[in-house]
Amino acid sequence: MTVGTPRPRAEVAALADQLLAAWLKREGHDEPPPDTLTLPVERLRLGERVLLDRDFGDLPGGPAAPASGAGWFRRRLRTPAPHGTDQLTLTFASATLDGPTEVRLEAEYLAAGSALRTGGRVPVPELVRALLPLLDATDGPAQIGVAPRLVRPAQVEALIDELCDPERRLPVLVASLPPSTAPDAWLTETLLPLTRQLTGLAALHLLDHEALPLFNVALEYHKVYGGAVRTYLPEVDPACRADGARHPVLPRHRIEEDVRRAAALLAREPRRLATDLPLPALLAAVPVFRAPVEPAEPRGAGSPSAELRTDREVDAAERQARADELQRVRHSLHRSRRRERFLSAANDDRSGLRHPAGLSLPGRLCTVRPCDGSPGSFGELVGRFAEFPLLEFTGDQKEALALDGQYAGTGWARLTWEGLTALQEYASAAVRGEAGGDFKQWCEHTPPGCHRFPPRKAVRGESRTVESHTKWKRERMLPVPECVDASRRAFMGAHLRIGGGRTAPRLHYLDDCSGSGRIYVGYIGLHLTNTRTN
Questions:
Q1: I want to staple 203 with a disulfide (CB 3.0 to 4.6 A). Which of 75, 103, 172, 524 is the partner?
Q2: Cα distance between residue 30 and residue 11, in whole Å
Q3: Residue 51 belongs to what H/E stretch?
Q4: What is d(CA 122, CA 84) in angstroms, rounded to the nearest whole number?
Q5: What is the enclosing helix (H) or strand (E) of 101?
Q6: Residue 467 confidence class, pLDDT cut points 50, 70, 90
Q7: Which backbone phi and psi does 79 adopt, to 5 degrees?
Q8: Which one, of 170, 159, 176, lies nearest residue 229 by Cα?
Q9: What are phi and psi of 482, to 5 degrees?
């Protein structure tokens, strides 16, 4: 399981320690003492064959940890199991002391002999079900909870945004209600046992009877109905007919025939993704575990103690090299699969299997391949800014270009292009006095034939706290021509949210259509500082 949480890493580690201690006590083992953070690596023996390792450290500077205070905590618990050992590893990493935290949980069965047990058979630890509700866990824009969330008509738009958001790494499971079935009964009797092995590995939703037709009208090629459950993998392309085949459907009759078997089928792809996806940069920067060396009296450079330390250092270096190679393989595999989908989508374009631009979910992000010639990178986007005659980019190109090095950078570029396209159409109407309000109102009531940008991603201004904070306000004083302000700077609180999450990129702009007849884009880059980003 790999999720994010807005809580700081020390708080997350403390919550995990409390839950681990409670579980160990229930199992009849010793409770571990509080972590005093005096030893960088600590091994506790809490019973026969029960080991708890605790370690922590700082993360190096650079793109993975741009701010001071970057660091990590880790817990590794080993308990006896039939013919082997159960191992549970929890890792928490964050770029600042008080900022959001990336959480990684790995459950493994280590066979004592030649017996094999596949990863698909390792059950979801009870710790996950206890910890998730305390974390407010997310995967990009998606909330990761223990039970499916009931989706009503008002939440359909947000669910579709979640499906199409490029920051999403985990699958989203959407269940439909059979006709004349009460949501509570279907949830309790069928969905909860069906999704029990997916806790922490996917976002879970249940469409109510009124939301179901709205969802299926919006996603013509990706429908779900009749009590079926559909697994939406990352990078949904709603305008592509062939992309629908990529997101498997588990029909109602298969579920009711054998819920246990259906649950195993449903868990197969999310578990594969959880293993194969590259780790987020912060978690990838955490070093491999190094077992503590038992204290011994110094006996010289050639003593057994010194040799033991050397052997352990060599072993740790080899394991680190293997971990780094695994991360490279994951990235290579991920790129290969994206490339395969790109080529498939290009073939669909030639075969006429994709809606023309603007006819299916205009403004919705198509992350596999642009339907309307949108750029695949911020480098290309910046070079094509002249295609928007009523928009002027006054910001620093370096901030935008740096986004190409981030995960989901391609999807971010396309979503930014969608926002710029909508801004251009709004500006064209606004200079004629026909916009009927500001850009957010335009998004809420987009005229027929125009590109639609999700209204919840269009923000009118910053909070009062940001505007009154000297440093944060200064960050948003962005360049404008002298004809707009003699100081050549203006506060740009209005912005577009590119992707989901509290630290996702933002596009800040100044609407001067009533003055100079232009919209000035002063910033495209990672989220500027506020109360959330610390």
A1: 172
A2: 23
A3: strand 50-58
A4: 13
A5: strand 101-111
A6: low
A7: -130, 150
A8: 176
A9: -65, -25
Amino acid making up residue 146: V
Question: What pLDDT score was predicted for residue 8?
Answer: 94
SS3 314: helix
d(CA 454, CA 24): 47
- Between CA 285 and CA 320, with CA 406 as vertex, the angle to 5 degrees is 20
Q: pLDDT tens digit string along 355-370?
A: 443 333 333 433 333 4
Distance CA 529, CA 334 (A): 31
> If you average pLDDT over residues 151-177, what whole number do you get?
91
How does strand 101-111 pair with strand 84-94?
Answer: antiparallel
Least confident among 320-324, 436-440, 484-488, 506-510: 320-324
Asked if 237 contacts 367 with a C-beta cutoff of 8 angstroms, the reply is yes
How many angstroms separate the CA atoms of 396 and 266, rounded? 46
Q: What is the pLDDT of residue 164?
A: 86
Handedness of CA 10, 16, 18, 20 (dihedral sign): negative
Sign of CA dihedral 394, 398, 404, 408: negative
pLDDT, mean over the chain: 82
Q: What is the pLDDT of residues 285-320, one digit of tens each?
A: 999 888 776 554 444 444 455 555 555 666 777 777
Rounded to whole angstroms, how far apart are CA atoms 364 and 310?
A: 56
CA gap 481, 483 in Å, rounded: 5
Q: Report phi then psi at 511, rounded to 5.
A: -85, 105
Rounded to whole angstroms, the Cα distance separating 20 from 39 reads 20
3-state secondary structure 138-166: EECCEECCCCCEEECHHHHHHHHHHHHCC
Residue 67: what pLDDT?
Answer: 47
Find the mean pLDDT for residues 57-75: 72
Per-residue model confidence (pLDDT) at position 145: 92
Orientation of helix 126-135 relative to helix 9-26, angle to 10°: 150
Cβ atoms of residues 257 and 231 within 8 Å: no
Nearest to 162 by CA among 222, 243, 232: 232
User: Whole-angstrom Cα distance, residue 165 to residue 411?
Assistant: 8
Q: What is the H or E stretch that residue 194 is in?
A: helix 192-194
**Where on the phi/psi map is residue 197: left (φ > 0), alpha (ψ -120 to 50), or beta?**
alpha
How many other C-beta atoms can be found within 10 angstroms of the C-beta atom of residue 528?
18
Q: What is the pLDDT of residue 323?
A: 77
Going by pLDDT thresholds of 50, 70 and 90, the confidence category of residue 519 is very high
Structure-token pair, residue 462: 């910053």
DSSP 240: B
399: left (phi over 0), alpha (psi -120 to 50) or beta: alpha
- The number of residues making up the chain comes to 534
The confidence score (pLDDT) of residue 340 equals: 58
CB 205 within 8 A of CB 187: no
Torsion angle, alpha carbons of 256, 259, 263, 264, to 10 = -110
Per DSSP, the three-state class of 221 is: coil
Whole-prediction pTM: 0.62
